[in-house]
Amino acid sequence: MEFKQGDWVRIEKDGTVYEGKVMPSMERYIAIKMKSGYNAGFSTDKVRITLMESNGETANGGKNGGKEHKNGDAELSKPGKKLPKVAILSTGGTIASKIDYRTGAVTSQFTADDILAAIPELKEIADFKGRVISSILSENMDSESWQNLARAVVEEIEAGADGVIVTHGTDTMMYTAAALSFMIETPVPIVLVGSQRSADRPSSDNAMNAICAACVSISDIAEVSVVMHGTTSDDFCEIHRGTKVRKMHTSCRNAFKSVNSLPIGVVDYNKREIKTFIDYTRRGVSSLKFKPGMEPKCALVKFTPGADPAILDCYLENGYRGLILEGTGLGHVSTKWIPFIQKATDAKIPVIVTSQCLNGRICDRVYDTGRDMLKAGAIEGEDTLPETALVKMMWVLGQTNEFDKAIEMLREDISGEITECTLK
Ligand code: GLU
Predict the structure, then answer these.
(1) Are residues 243 and 152 in the same domain?
(2) How far apart are CA 68 and CA 185, in angstroms?
């Protein structure tokens, strides 16, 4: 009997039984992905293979026969059970990826509907509608991608979604989260989720992250948040505010951390319960507002010892309209950079100072260099993350052409990016 990719099969070899989903396999060889996340391969002439479920149609007649889903579609179709409506928008990234067995590379191939099919537990939580926005790795996103995505999110909320999930590559997820936070005032949760390990790898985090994101999407946390593993185990996910989050590890499943803030809360994966730690905007409090303007010509410049300030001139000569400096410690650049800051602010190019320490607050009133930077017109970014400050600058300059108005907006807290009291 021929088995197709995606079939659920039972394999008996030397008295041991293995069950799993058929992966791309060569002739006379079958590879399966087991429930544990591990893959196993067998020569087809040495094993007994039984088809348990073929693309959603069960071989033994029962719904979900051969699989151990707690509540499947049957539960959902019970009359009278009304689940919240959640839109799931896919953009690409590892959560939507699998290995391309021709090249060995991981590519974005799953759509929102594929994700829903692969994680049937999601259907117990909400009534999902899938929509593909893009299929790209998040390093290929730009401000136009953020605007297109934001527009789609707003359309779904206008169409009655009780929550929106955005599946996204993890590398630049914090930029997109910040962009959506500034562009959309939302009455419902907007949850970004990704995964560090693709679905066909052992210990993939995609299912747990997606399930926790679904819990947040139907909660009363009406903010833009990022939901990802809280520890390296499969115990809970953290809910990070979209303007206070950063990817802090290249590969760990708990790579995302809230910086200068506690997470909004956590989702207990087993109990599917949410516990919150800080104030957040409740569902229905804000009415939907969409301000998509973005100025792409803004730059985040990292200062390093001895760095030539002429780099700032390059930005000015190339028509850049806003600069974020990632300074040292409390927010410093070398004295040589100060005339260049002055030149930028004289040309009505706002300059915000952030810190490469990430944790803590900018204070340019302690040392001479800081004081001189302020005299040259630099703005202290308070406890805003450098990446968030960049996105804020892009958004502010997309909202106004008036320099004084832009400075006023840059100084104020717009979407939780500046907290009054920085976490120690
Ligand atoms: N670099 C890719 C991205 O950010 C894959 C990383 C990931 O999704 O974790 O889309």
Answers:
(1) yes
(2) 40
- How far is residue 88's CA from residue 153's CA, in Å, rounded to a whole number? 9
pLDDT in tens, 83-126: 999 999 999 887 766 655 566 666 655 677 777 777 888 888 99
User: Which residue has tokens 């021929």?
Assistant: 2
Token pair, residue 113, equals 């509907």
Helix (H) or strand (E) run with residue 164 in it: strand 163-167
Q: Which of 123, 129, 247, 257 is catalytic?
A: 247
Q: How many domains does the chain have?
A: 3
- Contact assessment for residue 334 and residue 366, using Cβ atoms and an 8 Å cutoff: no
**Burial bucket for residue 134 (CB in 10 Å: 0-12, 13-18, 19+):** buried
Atom of ligand 1 nearest to the CA of 140: 10
Asked whether the beta carbons of 81 and 75 are under 8 A apart, the reply is yes
Looking at per-residue confidence, does 121 or 221 come out higher?
Answer: 221
Residues 38 and 178 in one domain: no
Last residue of a domain, one of 243, 274, 290: 290
Of the residues 162, 171, 205, 383, which is catalytic? 171
CATH number for the domain harbouring residue 363: 3.40.50.40
User: How wide is the angle at C-alpha 138 spanned by C-alphas 384 and 392, nearest 5°?
Assistant: 25
- For residue 118, the one-letter residue type is A
Asked, for residue 417, whether it belongs to a domain, the answer is no
Count CB atoms within 10 A of the CB of residue 156. Answer: 22
Q: Are residues 226 and 313 located together in one domain of the fold?
A: no
| Whole-number Å distance between alpha carbons of 238 and 306 | 39
Distance (Å, rounded) from C-alpha 400 to C-alpha 94?
36
List 335's β-bridge partners, or say none.
none
| Proportion of the chain above pLDDT 90, given as a percent | 66
State which of 99, 133, 137, 198 you would mutate to test the pocket of ligand 1, scoring each by most atoms of that ligand within 8 A of its C-beta.
Answer: 137
Residue 56 Cα to ligand 1 midpoint, Å, equals 29
Q: Look up the domain containing 400 and give its range.
A: 298-411
Task: Report the predicted TM-score, pTM, of the whole model to 2 decimal places.
Answer: 0.81
